[in-house]
Amino acid sequence: MENQEKGFYKLSWLQRIGFGSGDLAQNLIFQTVATFLMIYLCTVLKISPVFVSGLILAVRLFDCIWSPIVGRYIDNHNPRLGKYRTYLLYGGIPLTIAACCLMLPFAAEWSMTMRIIYATVSYVVLSMIYSVVNIPYGSIMASMTRDNNEVLILTSTRMVCANIGQIVVQAGFPIGLAIVAGVAIDWNQAVFMAIGTIPAFIILPLLPVLKRLLGKKGLYYVLLSIGFVGFIALYAIGKFFDVNECNTIVQIAKVMTGVGLLVGSLMWALVPEVITEAEYRTGNRPAATVNALAGVAFKAGFSIAGWITPLVMGWLGFNLAEEVSALSGDANAWFVVISVFALAGFVLLTLCFLGCKENIVTTPEKPATYAEMFKEFKANKCLQLMLCIFVVVFLASFISAPVNAYYTKLAEYSETVKEAILWFTTIIPAILLIVVGCLIYRYPLTDEYLDQINREIEEKNNK
């Protein structure tokens, strides 16, 4: 009870799962956009892949300006229903509507000019509203407890839920399209795209035990090493063997890559640490601002991947809109599936609103200016390093997304295109995992140091 009074709160499983449901909700929308929006715009609306890749990059560059604005606003206000929880409820309604409007069934009948305008406006609006929900959601974890073990449990619970959302989308979306459109389901493609999420359901619940055995950095190194081996195995199989004849080995290697990319999920546990370190130095707890910057870095990795992959593949003669594994072009099916996911997401956001309790919330006496935000960014070396890790690890996660489904059909392409697919799905992610390991090596915040500064903060607050 003493620790509870000092901010080191122990949480119930109802609170943990309630918090995690928010990430499941958001991933039903985010994973759909990350994995399938480009295919929808190219195959259903028939928009040029070059324009679509440029649109993704432009929206994310705009988000680099928008997210800090959202973070600053949230940090400087304290709504009646909760500093952060409020936005889950009131932001969830327009987010659901915007997600449904992203794939309107009659848009495919418009002129190309109208389709391009529609795609641009709908994607920008969805991205802006998503930040209004995502940034405060990420801030909630830092407001629930200062206990590092509880933060780790919250992170693992959140990421299990996020990976449930990922597997539901990556396997369920194409299956849903096929069912609604009345066409055959490509089970090999669906399994290959989804199987990499399996390690999350095994490893994440064991995080507290694995962390005690291996240490924080040791755990990261082991996961990254397994992922690296998996990517190299996929390259060797695709380069020298028939993928379809090595299906079991391919699936095992794909699971190993999922182990390595799981580090991306664990990176969110660093966010409360950086927030605490900033509070220790400045006296303010800039949770939403730090989460906004983390979101920018996360989306930067995603946007670079979404921009460069189809661009380079297009230069090599790989037409994303016409290749064999493109999904159903039935516009009505796309609208039905994304609407089901969006409505389910709103229900889950409501559960998150009801299940989360904000225990540690600070609102600065005077609003933070953008100059002060930039000054904090320059002074906070931990924040700078964390953002670099975010960019690289999520670039590794998403660099293969636009062509991942084509790996199972390597034999059908020219040697040039085959080599490009292999590089984007295996070699480049493997190299990026090495870079992530080097950045983690430089990360300075140990659990012992964090416990010390947390206790000093609470002692100062209780005086």
Verbal overview:
- The chain has about 475 residues and is mostly helical.
- The chain has one domain.
- Helix content is about 75%, strand content about 0%.
- α5 crosses α12.
- The radius of gyration is 22 Å and the shape is globular.
- The two termini are about 20 Å apart.
- The mean pLDDT is about 85.
Distance between the termini: 18 Å
**Approximate strand percentage:** under 5%
Question: Helical segment tally?
Answer: 18
Helix content: over 70%
| Largest sheet properties | none
Order of helices and strands: HHHHHHHHHHHHHHHHHH
Query: What is the residue-mean pLDDT, rounded to a whole number?
Result: 84
Tell me, briefly, the overall form: globular
Topology, number of strands: 0
Helix-strand makeup class? mainly alpha
Computed CA radius of gyration, to the nearest angstrom: 22 Å
Total count of domains: 1
What's the topology here?
Blueprint: H1 2-5, H2 13-44, H3 49-75, H4 85-101, H5 112-144, H6 148-181, H7 187-194, H8 198-203, H9 207-214, H10 216-240, H11 247-266, H12 270-282, H13 287-315, H14 331-355, H15 370-379, H16 381-398, H17 415-442, H18 447-461
Helix pairs in contact: 2-5, 2-6, 2-14, 3-5, 3-13, 4-5, 4-14, 5-12, 5-13, 6-7, 6-14, 9-10, 10-11, 10-17, 12-13, 12-18, 13-16, 16-17
